[in-house]
């Protein structure tokens, strides 16, 4: 019924996916809050399992190939409107169930996952597609070095806006709105909740009504994440705007729908935008977002035709939904290739958090290599995750810089040879020893996630076969992810192996940064997040190089180098990539799913239509 | 009597102040805070430290506890219940929005429970150790033992999932707007399950109270007297027994009334009903202090008020009780 049985990290990861926050941040945030955090609380969801798909960018094309991704039993019907008779039908109202109601619908003022539903109304300048490539929406083109959108020093970005866009009240959408948006961000009286990418902006200037020039204080890889929400200047009389402003709660946008009314705790009514740029769209008359806080009951109502879409489905809901679909209930389940995080084994390379001293066991590269070969990853997917999930050996497995790299094969004989050669001899109890040190390690993850516990045992057995002892000691999430001040196990380096999901990012910058030496947590750097306590100058140099430019090719090359070093040094071992899925009622048609965000179908609401 | 009432009302004032202080301090001492939803302890990532500081300053979270309490109490005295940290709306507006919904559901459930519990409890007591009494007692214990969330999910499973008779959630059909009779029917269909769950659970315990109170009275000497003077058994039960048994029951019922306003967290959550129970639990999750303080203060006030009403009713119903 409630949060218990579910892995917290997993729920956080889902939250992150849906709300497009960075996973790392959410994991740590959630941990620091304990489970009381509302955003996490309601994500009831069942046990973990794999959500998943392929690692490679090619596989990221969920939408392009509607239907089943990794050989799933579920999807049969086409994704996009394969309407039997003629074109899409006009009219009707779709009902979306919202599990966790946010305080505001504007993502500018609210960072709860539910405010992502504002994309039905508020359009961003760019949206990342399934391959992690940003596609222009309100922008005319993606700024690049070639088209002059990015200056030679990568510090000035020029955004060109599409012509003829109007706000839903008919006023033109212009560069002045973007300048105003930044002024609101800057005003100390305002209380925005925006990504750190905004903090790197030096100034914003309108060159002409359709051109904006943004100067950055430092190179800002998040430049395409800016302007996800633009504020309509003509609707405000001051740049001091807070959560209490009516347009923070129900923002005005340029998208297919407009917010009409919000009855708190009950429902939010959206009507079609009469001034939408495509006069044919949206096909629907409106959308009702119905607040439905109880996950099980919501899924039951969804299967009973009361909702067309649930925000949002997690892997744990899949068994019930796929079963309902097979029984002929009016729901359609769509599984995506990719679209979710990889489960990692974080290895502590320091001796109790002191990075100058190597970990007595894991500090030996041979141990890490042997472990890599000794884990039967395919068995996790086949035997425990019911076939949902895929394998990758790539450190950067998602986003535009994704690299295709096969997973390390399961080869216990090779693992044994490596350990024998490295001088780890089997002791009396078959566990290896070297110089009096026993190859015995603590293996921890968040307590209470039954699915994870199952594959923890499988890995424990795998490791026993090669003479490494794993002691499973699962603990609450805040014990693991707590901050340095709170004595979190990861932050303090007080662990051997911890398992959690991470790394599903459009841009690898933030994700790669969690392995660089300069962010190792310490007394002087309590906010550090390099939990592996890994120091590798070569890797750091590659990451620094990738961060020194916005030239995609140059960055990609640098990340590829970093990924090779990562795969060789193994500060963390990938297990599998989860499967992502979404679901909607069979009467709702026209969805597109070719977005990086697994809930991206909401971006395509203009194309939705109802066919009973 | 009026002196008594005045004294009780005056006593209630320091009590409410005391409650508000305790509740305020307890709330602030609970781990986490209103910024928990947005907070990022590491300092890197989505929301920057500076943005958090702006928000903290706005909510006045950096001031000492007593300053915050005095500010809150001062505003309250002037009639300002504060603004929700979460929605930015006035607290009183948010509470008033929820009260009618909760009262509709809990009030109906209360009436149904009364209508069921009295006859069952009376017959059980009048025919103690009969088959009916055993059945009613077993059913009542079952009702007390079954958690309401389980019952609610079973109802959903049976009536929505399996039989497809009733809508699962909410209080109206979100797909169509009905008017007139259709709207009433639609609303009634949506009310059946939540009201039934709440009513069944409270009927169970109420039946026990009625039965116990009746048994107590039926054993009194005046019952024998009433029968001895030749009154029909029905008259003995309804006129003499029930009237006297009503005294403790009325007290219990009066004390239940504040609960009608507070609502049921579980049932409201499962059936997606936007009532007070949900407002409270959501505000608690979000550490939305102004809303929590508002709800808790109103709840405390109602408890005190209905205690007083119960005491007054007591003296009215039972001439042996006199307050000075």
Task: Give short descriptive properties of this protein.
heterodimer, A: 612 residues, alpha+beta, Dipeptide-binding Protein, domain 1, Dipeptide-binding Protein, domain 3, five-stranded mixed sheet, globular, B: MetI-like fold, 2 domains
Can you characterise this structure?
The complex is a heterodimer of chains A (612) and B (324). Among the domains of chain A are: 1-66, no CATH class; 125-245, Dipeptide-binding Protein, Domain 1 (Dipeptide-binding Protein, domain 1), CATH 3.90.76.10; 340-578, Roll (Dipeptide-binding Protein, domain 3), CATH 3.10.105.10. In chain A, α1 (8-19) packs across α2 (23-33) and α8 (365-374) runs antiparallel to α10. In chain A, β18 (440-444), α11 and β19 form a beta-alpha-beta unit. Chain A is globular, with a radius of gyration of 24 Å. In chain A, 24% of the residues lie in helices and 18% in strands. With 612 residues, chain A is α+β, with helices and mostly antiparallel strands. Chain A has helices at 8-19, 23-33, 38-41, 175-186, 246-249, 295-303, 318-326, 365-374, 377-384, 412-421, 450-465, 477-481, 489-492, 509-512, 537-546, 552-569, and strands spanning 93-98, 126-128, 134-136, 156-160, 201-208, 211-216, 257-263, 267-272, 286-291, 309-311, 331-336, 342-347, 350-351, 354-358, 425-426, 432-434, 437-438, 440-444, 469-472, 497-502, 572-577, 580-585, 588-589, 609-610. A 5-stranded mixed sheet of chain A has the order 7-8-9-1-10, with helices on one face. Chain B has 324 residues and is mainly α. Chain B has 2 domains: 2-77, no CATH class; 97-317, Orthogonal Bundle (MetI-like fold). In chain B, α6 (148-162) packs antiparallel against α7 (180-218) and α11 crosses α12. Chains A and B meet through α2, α3, β9 and α6 of A and α2, α4, α6 and α11 of B.
């Amino acid at each position: 019924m409630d949060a218990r049985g579910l892995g917290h990290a997993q729920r956080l990861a889902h939250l992150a996916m849906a709300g497009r926050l960075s996973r790392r941040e959410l994991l740590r945030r959630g941990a620091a809050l304990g489970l009381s955090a509302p955003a996490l609380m309601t994500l009831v969801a069942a046990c973990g399992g794999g959500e998943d798909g392929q690692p490679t960018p090619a596989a990221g094309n969920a939408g392009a190939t509607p239907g089943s991704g990794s050989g799933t039993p579920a999807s049969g019907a086409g994704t996009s409107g394969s309407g039997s008779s003629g074109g899409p039908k006009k009219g009707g109202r779709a009902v979306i169930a919202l599990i966790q109601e946010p305080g505001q619908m504007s993502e500018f003022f609210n960072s709860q996952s539910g405010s992502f539903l504002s994309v039905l109304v508020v359009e961003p300048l760019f949206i990342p597609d399934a391959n992690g490539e940003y596609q222009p929406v309100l922008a005319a083109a993606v700024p690049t070095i070639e088209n002059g959108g990015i200056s030679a020093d990568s510090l000035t970005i020029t955004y060109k806006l599409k012509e003829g866009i109007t706000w839903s009240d008919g006023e033109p959408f212009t560069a002045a709105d973007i300048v105003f948006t930044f002024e609101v961000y800057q005003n100390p009286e305002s209380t925005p909740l925006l990504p750190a990418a905004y903090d790197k902006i030096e100034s914003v200037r309108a060159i002409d009504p359709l051109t904006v020039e943004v100067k950055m204080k430092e190179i800002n890889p998040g430049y395409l994440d800016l302007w996800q929400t633009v504020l309509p200047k003509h609707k405000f009389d001051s740049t001091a705007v807070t959560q209490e402003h009516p347009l923070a709660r129900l923002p005005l946008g340029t998208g297919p729908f407009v917010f009409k009314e919000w009855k708190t705790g009950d429902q939010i009514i959206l009507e079609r935008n009469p001034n939408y740029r495509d006069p044919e769209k949206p096909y629907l008359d409106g959308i009702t977002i119905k607040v439905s806080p109880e996950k099980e009951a919501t899924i039951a109502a969804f299967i009973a035709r009361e909702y067309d879409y649930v925000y949002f489905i997690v892997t744990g809901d899949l068994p019930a939904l796929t079963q309902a679909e097979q029984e002929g209930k009016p729901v359609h389940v769509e599984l995506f290739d990719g679209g979710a995080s990889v489960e990692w084994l974080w290895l502590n390379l320091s001796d109790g958090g002191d990075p100058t001293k190597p970990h007595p066991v894991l500090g030996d590269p041979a141990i890490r290599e042997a472990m890599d070969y000794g884990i039967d990853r395919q068995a996790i997917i086949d035997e425990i995750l019911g076939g949902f999930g895929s394998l990758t050996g790539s450190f950067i497995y998602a986003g535009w810089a994704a690299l295709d790299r096969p997973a390390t094969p399961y080869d216990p004989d090779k693992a044994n040879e490596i350990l024998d050669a490295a001088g780890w001899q089997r002791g009396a109890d078959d566990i290896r020893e070297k110089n009096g040190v026993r190859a015995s390690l603590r293996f921890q993850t968040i307590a209470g996630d039954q699915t994870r516990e199952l594959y923890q045992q499988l890995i424990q057995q795998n490791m026993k076969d090669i003479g490494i002892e794993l002691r499973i000691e699962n603990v609450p999430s805040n014990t693991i992810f707590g901050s340095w001040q709170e004595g979190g196990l990861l932050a303090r380096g007080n662990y051997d192996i911890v398992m959690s999901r991470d790394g599903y990012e459009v841009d690898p910058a933030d994700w790669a940064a969690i392995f660089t030496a300069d962010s190792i947590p310490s007394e002087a750097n309590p906010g550090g997040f390099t939990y592996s306590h890994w120091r590798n100058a070569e890797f750091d140099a590659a990451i620094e190089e990738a961060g020194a430019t916005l030239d995609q090719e140059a960055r990609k090359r640098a990340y590829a180098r970093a990924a090779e070093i990562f795969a060789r040094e193994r500060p963390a071992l990938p297990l599998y990539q989860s499967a992502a899925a979404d679901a909607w009622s069979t009467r709702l048609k026209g969805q597109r799913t070719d977005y990086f965000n697994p809930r991206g179908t909401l971006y395509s609401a203009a194309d939705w239509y109802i066919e009973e | 009597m009026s002196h008594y009432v005045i004294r009780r009302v005056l006593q209630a004032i320091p009590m409410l102040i005391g409650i508000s202080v305790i509740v305020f301090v307890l709330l602030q001492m609970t781990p986490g805070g209103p910024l928990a939803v947005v907070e990022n302890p590491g300092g890197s990532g989505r929301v920057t430290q500076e943005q958090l500081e702006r928000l903290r300053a706005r909510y006045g979270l950096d001031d000492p506890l007593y300053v915050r309490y005095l500010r809150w109490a001062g505003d309250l005295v002037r009639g300002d219940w504060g603004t929700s940290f979460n929605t930015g709306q006035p607290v009183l507006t948010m509470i008033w929005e929820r009260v009618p919904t909760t009262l509709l559901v809990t009030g109906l459930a209360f009436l149904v429970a009364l209508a069921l519990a009295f006859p069952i409890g009376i017959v059980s007591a009048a025919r103690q150790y009969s088959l009916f009494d055993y059945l009613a007692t077993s059913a009542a214990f079952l009702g007390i033992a079954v958690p309401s969330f389980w019952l609610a999910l079973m109802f959903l499973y049976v009536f929505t999932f399996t039989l497809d008779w009733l809508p699962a959630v909410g209080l109206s059909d979100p797909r169509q707007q009905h008017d007139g009779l259709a709207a009433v029917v639609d609303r009634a269909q949506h009310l059946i399950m939540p009201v039934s769950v709440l009513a069944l659970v409270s009927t169970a315990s109420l039946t026990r109270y009625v039965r116990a109170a009746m048994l107590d009275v039926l054993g009194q000497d005046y019952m024998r007297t009433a029968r001895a003077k030749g009154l029909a058994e029905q008259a003995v039960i309804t006129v003499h027994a029930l009237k006297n048994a009503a005294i403790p029951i009325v007290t219990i019922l009066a004390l239940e009334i504040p609960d009608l306003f507070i609502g049921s967290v579980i049932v409201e959550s499962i059936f997606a009903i936007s009532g007070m129970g949900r407002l409270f639990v959501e505000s608690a999750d979000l550490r939305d202090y102004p809303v929590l303080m508002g709800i808790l203060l109103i709840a405390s006030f109602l408890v005190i008020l209905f205690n007083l009403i119960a005491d007054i009713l007591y003296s009215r119903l039972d001439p042996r009780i006199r307050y000075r």
